[in-house]
Design goal:
Keywords: Pyridoxal phosphate, Transferase. The chain is 39% helix and 14% strand. The two termini are 35 Å apart. The chain has a 7-stranded mixed β-sheet with strand order 2-8-7-6-5-3-4, with helices on both faces. Strands 11-12-15-14 form a 4-stranded antiparallel β-sheet, covered by helices on one side. The chain is globular and about 70 Å long. With 424 residues, it is of the alpha/beta class. Helix 5 links the parallel strand 3 and strand 4. It binds 4'-deoxy-4'-aminopyridoxal-5'-phosphate.
Length: 424
């Protein structure tokens, strides 16, 4: 196969030609927080606003019928992207956070009781922790955390022991860590959890942009992801659920669009997917999301994964040569398919915010902080990390600029640190 050339795609992303405030050309390496959008997505959205926008499902007039058709076609496109059996298994939400909260409120309140266990990993984003803490406060269930090992993943034996001992009602885990860059084996873990009677929710926020997500192959019960991380708009995400589960769940939000009948004494629900889409849905965002998943599908998710992996391996191999730079995550390339395009670093004696600020002056955009994974940072005894995250439009030159900037920060802020031996 021909080598992957990011230049082919960069011309679709005018924002990538920008400069940072310092005047340096921008190397946008904050894709785990949010990606950029290609012209194709921006055009699909402005085309709707300019030429056929109206509220969906309600009006029997030309614009409403055209918007409704485009909105429902977007659902079909997303169902194909996930390889869902039917479009009605795809619920449009406000984002991955809203998707997980919907499961916690709707499925959780109906199925979880005092004494039950919700099992998560220590590597979860707050979006896959806080809703379960809230569920625990409402129901008296318990949230239990699986620890990660020295290789920044979880051994099957540790998981099986926990599943045997805790018999969780739900196992909710991320397909890929937004801090460590670890890719978890979703299909295998889902099978183990199902064998122990647990329902499975997969947080695919960091998987959907970078690898093929096949919900039937995963066999997960619920899958969540966000539009803005797959080159789509903000304000939209997806909750995939197996049809029978969604059918059995009560709605979470009540309002227009989700009802079959309303009287002064009560209501009956609409069917799927409307039951979970109360109020005016994110219409233009759904149309933009469909354009986005089509775009990345055309780029090719396997090629995206391979290119990001090559960038990670290159940057990491250089970073690991620098005494005093610790990489907080698995070694890229050590185990096949275990590390994505995220590199979090810790420079002993240098605050992550200083790293990020210095990198910004070199035009390199990375994120500093706990990345909404405070329990993971506590577990690792770190207060913050600086995180670079690649996407398919990033180049090897940008990866090198990141490493060069880290070397410069380190010599500036931690001159003695360069002589210390790294822990890993
Ligand atoms: N899960 C993971 C693993 C994430 O990285 C993120 C976003 N940082 C979320 C959930 C939440 O996504 P959103 O903020 O779009 O709802």
């Amino acid at each position: 196969a021909a080598a992957f050339d990011p230049a082919v795609y960069r011309s679709d992303f005018p924002i990538l030609d920008r400069q940072a405030a310092s005047g340096a050309p921008l190397a946008f390496l904050d894709n785990a927080a949010s990606t950029q959008r290609p012209t194709q997505v921006i055009d699909a959205m402005s085309d709707c606003y300019r030429s056929y926008y109206a509220n969906v499902h309600r009006g029997i007039h030309t614009l409403s019928e055209e918007s409704t058709a485009a909105f429902e076609q977007a659902r079909v496109t997303v169902a194909q992207f996930l390889n869902a059996k039917r479009p009605r298994e795809v619920i449009f939400t406000a984002g991955a956070t809203a998707s997980i909260n919907t499961v916690a409120r709707s499925w959780g309140d109906a199925n979880v009781a005092a004494g039950d266990v919700v099992l998560v990993t220590i590597a979860e984003h707050h979006a896959n922790i806080v809703p379960w803490h809230q569920l625990a406060a409402r129901t008296g269930c318990r949230v239990e955390f699986l620890p990660i090992n020295d290789g920044f993943t979880i051994d099957d034996e540790v998981m099986v022991e926990a599943l045997d001992r805790l018999r969780p009602k739900l196992f909710a885990f991320t397909a890929a860590s937004n801090t460590l860059g670890t890719i978890f084996p979703v299909q295998r873990w889902t099978k183990l959890a199902h064998d122990h009677g647990a329902t499975v929710l997969v947080d695919a926020a960091q998987a959907a942009p970078h690898q093929v997500v096949d919900v039937q192959q995963w066999n997960a019960d619920f899958v969540a992801f966000s539009g803005h991380k797959v080159c789509g708009p903000t304000g939209i995400g997806v909750l995939y659920g197996k049809e029978a589960l969604l059918e059995a769940m009560p709605p979470f939000l009540g309002g227009g669009g989700m009802i079959h009948d309303v009287t002064t004494t009560g209501f009956t629900c609409a069917g799927l997917p409307e039951k979970f889409e109360a109020g005016t849905p994110p219409i233009v965002e759904a149309i933009g999301l469909a354009a986005a998943v089509k775009y990345i599908t055309e780029v090719g998710l396997d090629r995206i994964a391979a290119h990001e992996h090559a960038l990670s391996e290159h940057a990491e191999s250089r970073l690991r040569e620098i005494t005093g730079v610790q990489i907080v995550g698995p070694v890229a390339g050590a185990v096949p398919n275990q590390k994505n395009g995220i590199i979090s670093i810790h420079l002993p004696g240098v605050h992550a915010h200083d790293v990020s600020q210095q990198l910004d002056s070199a035009g390199v955009a990375v994120r500093a902080g706990h990345h909404c994974t405070m329990p993971l940072h506590h577990f690792l005894k770190l207060s913050a990390t600086a995180r670079a995250s690649f996407y398919f439009y990033n180049t090897i030159e940008e990866a090198d600029r990141f490493v060069d900037a880290v070397i410069e920060v380190q010599s500036k802020f931690a001159p003695s640190g360069r002589k210390r031996r790294p822990r890993t």
